[in-house]
From TrEMBL:
<protein>
    <submittedName>
        <fullName>Glycosyl transferase</fullName>
    </submittedName>
</protein>
<dbReference type="GO" id="GO:0016740">
    <property type="term" value="F:transferase activity"/>
</dbReference>
<keyword id="KW-0808">Transferase</keyword>
<dbReference type="InterPro" id="IPR029044">
    <property type="entry name" value="Nucleotide-diphossugar_trans"/>
</dbReference>
Length: 408
């Protein structure tokens, strides 16, 4: 049971009453007549063979209010794409699988690459970006939710609570971020959010002084949650990173494009667990190590666009300030864990803080060394300007793949 306290500068919508799912879904079904709804699922083929996604699909078959489900499929060959079509075929909603590794979408991507308006690297950001383009192309929905495919504790109430704020015609929200507690198996999880993002934002406040952007970012209870919802018009002008900075990039774009009263966050689950990344202390090209570098760079880039000037001394001071704040948070989380009968490994927590501190410096040095780097995927409005028929061609390619390779 959450409290009703409002903190920060955006609206927080709580779970105060344990409202029945049946009642909420009935209301969402009524909303769907005015605001048709879609769900985007960015997926790896390997997730079809895991424990989480089959159960997620089981739950989605019971959802009555969705107009369509859009699946972005990565790392799949032809036989795996065929298998994915069979896997999702039991969904009663209109659904579409974007085969990103198929010849049609790869050919379209190569044309966009030639014009300099395509994602530059593989990953979730690229997957989500193409799914957003397909949502614009079909023009069938007004409200869209997005969540990951590795949620082990999934219940369809998560989706209902996530999409409700942008689906209710009486609300004026353009964007909604989901949040939840990251507690599972007697442990507090969510190290990157707890031990990197929050203390880094607090350190930036100390170094840079009061900035509404930093206050805004610090208002989100779980800024790295992969679950959010939005109105369709959000999609045209958003600039998102293609790396692990996706969530930070999306929040930053919402701040740039909309006033704070059009944005909110909502409590979507009492329990949440998903696939965990390794720390990768000896390899900053993967795991939480790469994630921490990408996230730090995303914050630095966004601050630079707001007129902040960085130099090496700034990053050295930031690293030291962050380190002290993060170590204090370790003690705070340990006390919270003890009071709730949970376990927290202080040694591994401090190892993570030490790694994140080093990676803040690496991110800062990379930011200074490559000032001309273009980390953001172009907005769809720019892509349409460069290739006016791109949305029609994207939609046709998805339909042609389905027609050719579906068993039905």
């Amino acid at each position: 049971m959450g409290d009703f306290h409002q903190n920060g500068i955006i609206t927080t919508l709580h779970n105060l009453s344990g409202r029945s799912l049946r009642e909420m879904e009935q209301e969402l079904t009524e909303f769907s007549a005015r605001r048709p709804m879609a769900l985007i699922l960015p997926s790896l083929f390997s997730e079809l063979e895991g424990d989480a996604l089959p159960h997620i699909v089981d739950e989605l078959t019971l959802v009555p209010y969705l107009t369509e489900i859009i699946v972005g499929l990565d790392r799949a060959d032809e036989s795996q794409y065929r298998e994915s079509l069979r896997f999702f075929s039991r969904l009663p909603q209109d659904h579409h699988v974007l085969w990103h590794d198929g010849p049609r979408l790869k050919a379209l991507d190569e044309e966009l690459q030639a014009q300099g308006v395509a994602p530059k690297e593989l990953g979730k950001g690229r997957n989500v970006w193409y799914c957003m383009g397909y949502t614009l192309a079909t023009n069938r929905v007004e409200s869209v939710a997005l969540h990951d495919c590795d949620i082990l504790t999934y219940d369809r109430s998560l989706l209902a609570r996530l999409i409700y704020p942008v689906a209710n015609p009486r609300f004026n929200y353009e964007f909604c971020k989901g949040y939840y507690s990251r507690v599972a198996d007697g442990k507090i999880n969510g190290r990157v959010s707890r031990l990197l993002v929050t203390p880094l934002l607090r350190a930036l406040k100390k170094i840079l002084g009061d900035m509404e952007y930093l206050e805004y970012m610090d208002s989100f209870r779980y800024p790295l949650a992969g679950e959010f919802s939005f109105r369709r018009d959000v999609l045209t002008d958003i600039l998102i990173p293609s790396d692990w900075g996706l969530e930070i990039g999306v929040l930053s774009e919402m701040y740039r494009n909309y006033s704070n009263n059009r944005l909110c966050q909502v409590d979507i689950a009492d329990a949440y667990d998903h696939k965990h990344q390794t720390l990768s202390a000896d390899d900053d090209s993967g795991g939480l190590s790469k994630m921490s570098i990408d996230i730090s760079k995303a914050l630095f880039r966004k601050l630079a666009t707001r007129g902040v000037t960085f130099n090496l001394e700034t990053f050295r001071s930031l690293k030291a300030t962050y380190y002290r704040i993060a170590l204090d948070f370790v003690e705070t989380y340990n006390n919270d864990a003890v009071m709730n009968g949970l376990t927290l490994d202080i040694h591994s927590e401090e190892q993570a803080v030490e790694l994140f501190a080093e990676n803040i410096m690496k991110a800062g040095e990379a930011f200074l060394d490559r000032p001309m780097e273009r980390p953001f995927i172009p907005s769809w409005s720019r892509v349409i300007s460069a290739m006016p028929d791109v949305l029609e061609r994207l939609s046709n390619a998805v339909d042609a793949d389905h027609a050719e390779f579906s068993d039905g």
